[in-house]
Amino acid sequence: MDPLAAAALALAGAAVGYAARVIEGWLKARWDRDREREARQEARRDRLDELQRSTLLELQEALQELGRRTAQVHIAMRKTDHLDATDPSVTLVPDELEEEQRVVYGRALLLAGRLRDPALKETVRGAIRASANVGLTTQPRERADRLGEFFDARDGAERALEGVLAEYL
Predict the structure, then answer these.
(1) Half-sphere exposure of 44 toward its Cβ, with a 13 Å CA cutoff?
(2) Measured between alpha carbons, how far is 118 from 123 in angstroms, rounded to an integer?
(3) Beta-carbon contacts of residue 39 (< 8 Å; ≥ 6 apart)
(4) What would the pLDDT profile of 76-133 be if each residue is shown by its tens digit?
(5) How many C-alpha atoms does 133 have within 13 Å on its Cβ side?
(6) Which of 157, 136, 129, 152 is nearest to 74 (CA)?
(7) What is the DSSP letter of 81?
(8) What is the CATH number of the domain that holds 149?
(9) 3-state secondary structure of 63
(10) Residue 158 domain-assigned (yes or no)
(11) Sign of the C-alpha dihedral, residues 109, 110, 113, 116?
(12) Amino acid 87: pLDDT
């Protein structure tokens, strides 16, 4: 074989080898980047799932607390049913209980806002609204009806929460 042809062939072989190593390095870097991106996305999904799971658990507790406070408001208002609710000097619900109820509302609304499922979010918000309706009603019979509506709405929200929570446990 001609020495010039042999040199050209060796040079071509070296160039092909070099190009193959460059392509291999590029493909490996791309594969590594894709794998790292997938790992970051998976970690993000895991964090979001954990946040949703903890939100659902906290919301269950908040709804239970909301039920207790709503019943306490109803009882406090029953004790004052004989008083004139239009008289500004009459306190139907003690200030401390009103504040506790406000805090529970706020916590439940905050947690409901974190929910991913729009139907579940609306169900929970409906229960929270039903609780507010108990305290806004001054007529004893109507208030008792509203209390029943609240507990029905809360129970429905808790069942829905349990169904969604099962996906995260």
Answers:
(1) 6
(2) 9
(3) none
(4) 888 877 766 666 566 678 889 999 999 999 999 999 999 999 999 999 999 999 999 9
(5) 17
(6) 136
(7) T
(8) 1.20.120
(9) helix
(10) yes
(11) negative
(12) 67
Domain that holds residue 104: 48-166
| Continuous H helices in 80-139 | 95-113, 118-136
- Cα–Cα distance, 131 to 114 (Å, whole number): 20
Query: What whole-number distance in Å separates Cα of residue 98 and Cα of residue 56?
Result: 25
Residue 126 is classified by DSSP as H
Count of C-beta atoms within a 10 Å radius of residue 7 = 10
Residue closest to 64 by CA, chosen among 162, 169, 167: 162
pLDDT digits (tens, 9 = 90+) for 60-82: 999 999 999 999 999 988 887 77
- At residue 109's C-alpha, the angle toward residues 78 and 128, to 5°, is 35
Q: What is the mean pLDDT of the chain?
A: 89
Please state the separation of Cα 142 from the chain's center in Å. Answer: 33
pTM, rounded to two decimals: 0.74
Q: Give the total number of structural domains in the chain.
A: 1
